Amino acid sequence: MLHEPEAVHLSCGNGLPNPKIVDHASGTHPPHSYLPVAGVADVLMHTLRCRPELEALVLVQSAVSQAFLSPHYLRAKLAGPRNGRARATLGLIIPRADSLLEVLAHTHFTRAGLKVKMHVQLPGVGEVDCLINDCLVIELDGGTHLEGRQVKKDQYRNNASMRGGFLVLRYYYADVVHHPGRMVAEVLAVLNNRKAGYFGPSRWTPKWVPAS
User: Fold this and answer.
1) CATH topology of domain 98-199
2) What residues contact residue 71 under an 8 Å CB cut-off, 6+ apart?
3) Residue 206 CA from chain centroid, whole number
4) Average pLDDT, the chain
5) What whole-number distance in Å separates Cα of residue 56 and Cα of residue 71?
6) CB under 8 Å to 163, separation ≥6 — which residues?
7) What whole-number distance in Å separates Cα of residue 117 and Cα of residue 128?
8) pTM for the full model?
9) Which of 68, 70, 52 is nearest to 3 (CA)?
10) Nearest Cα to 61, choosing from 77, 74, 49, 79?
C-alpha cells in the first residue's frame, strides 16, 4: 500500500450504516478459501472505484506482479462509462515492477512526456531501473541501498554507466512518493542541460599536463 487507509473498508452487505467503516457492496467473486476476507478480484475492483488513482495503482500492480490475476480480467469486469477512471488506472500498470517506486516513477515520468524504458540491460552495468530518453539512467533505491556494501556497489555501477555515455540520477522513497514533482523537474533540468551541450566538450579546452 502507498498509505495506510484512514478507515477500515468492509463489505458488510447488510445495508446498515456504520460511521466507523467504509461499507462496500457485497462481493461478486468467491471469497478467500479460509480467511474471512473478500477475494482478490473484489478487493481490487472496489479499490479502483474507491481509492485515489496512485493508491489503487500500487495495489493492482502488486496483485498483477504476483500473478493473482491479469489486467485484462479486471478490465473486462469494469465495463461501462462509470468505470472509466478505473480502466484508466489499469492503463498505468507495467509488465513488471519490483517495487511500488518503479510503477510510480514510470507514471510520473511518462506523464511528463518522457520516453521511459524499464529494466534495461546496459553493457558493463547490468540492469538499471529506468532509462529516460535513451540517455539518462534513473535508479530507484529502497532501504537496502543504504547499506555500506550496497552503496559501494551502486557507486561503481554509476561509474560504469558514465563510462558508457549515460548520465545517472538516483532517487529514494521520499522523492518518488512525497516529492514526485521535484523529482521530475530535476530530471527535466538534466535533460535540458544535456540538450544545451553542458555535458559536451567545453568551449574552453584545458591543456592537461601529465604529472612528472
Assistant:
1) Endonuclease; Chain A (3.40.960)
2) 60, 64, 90, 93
3) 43
4) 89
5) 13
6) 124
7) 10
8) 0.84
9) 52
10) 74
Strand 21-23 relative to strand 8-10, pairing:
parallel
Q: What is the pLDDT of residues 93-148, one digit of tens each?
A: 999 999 999 999 999 999 999 999 999 999 999 999 999 999 999 999 875 555 56
- Packing angle between helix 100-111 and helix 180-195, nearest 10 degrees? 60
Helix axes 53-65, 100-111, angle to 10 degrees: 130
Q: Do the Cβ atoms of 45 and 73 come closer than 8 Å? A: no
Distance of alpha carbon 78 from alpha carbon 26, whole angstroms: 16
Which residues pair with residue 131 across a beta bridge?
Answer: 117, 137
Domain boundaries defined on the chain: 1-93, 98-199
**Exposure of 139 in the CB half-sphere (CA atoms within 13 A):** 23
Long-range Cβ contact pairs of 178-181 (< 8 A, separation 24 or more): 180/104, 180/105, 180/108
CB atoms within 10 A of CB 125: 20
The answer to whether 120 and 131 are in contact (CB under 8 A) is yes
Cell of 137: 539512467
Cell, residue 199: 555535458
